[in-house]
Amino acid sequence: MITGITGQDGSYLAELLLGKGYEVHGLIRRSSTFNTSRIEHLYVDPHDPDAKLFLHYGDLSDGARLITLMAQIDPDEVYNLAAQSHVRVSFDEPEHTGDTTGIGSIRLLEAVRLAGVKCRFYQASSSEMFGASPPPQDENTLFYPRSPYGAAKVYSYWVTRNYREAYGLFAVNGILFNHESPRRGETFVTRKITRAVARIKAGTEKDLYMGNLDAIRDWGYAPEYVEGMWRMLQADEPQDFVLATGGNYSVRDFLTTAFEHAGLDWEKHVKFDERYLRPTEVDALVGDASKAESVLGWKPSVHTPDLAKIMVDADIAALEHEGRPWIDRPDLPDWT
Ligand code: NDP
Ligand code: GDR
Question: Coiled-coil stretches, from where to where (predicted)?
């Protein structure tokens, strides 16, 4: 069972698990418009005897529904990926962020416990929990969150550990550093940049308004990170792991690579807008994933500069084909 299946990571994880022969159940939110574009290509009519993907309405704010679903589905593995996941937005909607990104996790853990489900549980923890602690960060680094989002993720991290210790649940935290892809939400910095590059290249846009260009991040490739999530649940013992590339790049570096890849000069197009600044910023996140490499054999192969190029190519292709390349263009390479 995957919460957040309609998001970037949920869609890649669903693909990975279906490819391994799993039956996958996803929690989706009721919305007045379709919110399933990232998983449309995986959907098979549930009346089809070959159907392996099943979607259920629900919300992390609705504990009773989570208990009902747990009892009905009786999953072997639960991946809690749902969250209000935007750090800047968490300053605008701190209470909602606490309710979904924080309390939502304990509602799901309680649903597992109360329904008596014997499953393995993955919690999508984040490098944002390290916040102001200087890099490199690993599993032993002190948490010092710098946003309502980071603080809510710290809560979820600790309740996941607590359910492991208190109830013997196989519950783990994947502490993932930033990971991106052509499916990344359009308001996160990498996708915002690569979409703008495609539009500027096509001549439909001229300027890109941005906030702090000095922030350092360690941007990896999402499909590799969902493989790491799955490995954490196959391990002999429940343990928490950092997943990261170890890369050290500024937003300015990402801009430079992305614009240059399309033959453009970012300095001619990028303008500053203070609305994209955060009241407290996380200056530098650079992860040390050596524990994941030694215990899980997990090692990322796509590093930030190549990731920027993959995303620019995909956004240019999406514009050219007036759609989402990973759905409309089966001839495109796997990374879409
Ligand atoms: P996205 O923002 O792309 O996806 C979030 C998902 O959560 C969507 O499916 C969304 O549904 C769903 N969701 C939001 N609120 C609720 C709710 N109240 N009830 C049920 N579902 C809800 O995030 P990512 O895929 O990038 O990230 C997955 C998880 O990993 C998140 O928890 C994120 O905080 C965490 N994380 C992400 C990292 C990254 O770099 N991507 C790094 C570290 C942690 P809808 O589509 O309807 O909006
Ligand atoms: P982050 O991702 O906050 O690290 O959280 P985001 O891409 O939003 O910001 C990265 C850095 O870029 C700076 N920045 C801008 N950010 C956005 N969104 N828009 C801008 O215009 C802009 N200009 C500069 C930010 O200040 C920041 O320093 C992501 C999310 O996926 C979380 O859910 C996840 O937990 C963490 O990564 C790890």
Answer: none
Ligand 2 atom closest to 282 (CA): 28
Q: DSSP string of 311-335?
A: HHHHHHHHHHTTS-HHHH-TTS-TT
| Residue 126 among the catalytic residues | yes
Alpha carbons within 13 A on the beta-carbon side of 39: 31
DSSP letters for 13-62: HHHHHHHTT--EEEEE---SS---TTTGGG---TTSTT--EEEEE--TT-
Q: Which numbered ligand comes closest to the C-alpha of 30?
A: 1
CA of 102 to the centre of ligand 2 (A): 19
Q: Whose CA is nearest to atom 43 of ligand 1?
A: 126
Give the torsion sign (CA, 50, 55, 56, 62): positive
Instruction: Please report the atom of ligand 1 found closest to the CA of residue 11.
Output: 25
Strand partners, 174: 124, 241
> Of 149, 157, 163, 249, which one is the catalytic site residue?
149
Confidence (pTM): 0.96
Q: All domains of the chain, ordered by start, with CATH?
A: 2-328 (3.40.50.720)
Q: Which residues have any ligand 1 atom within 6 Å of their CB?
A: 3-4, 6-10, 27, 29, 31, 35, 59-61, 81-85, 100, 104, 124, 126, 176, 178-179, 185
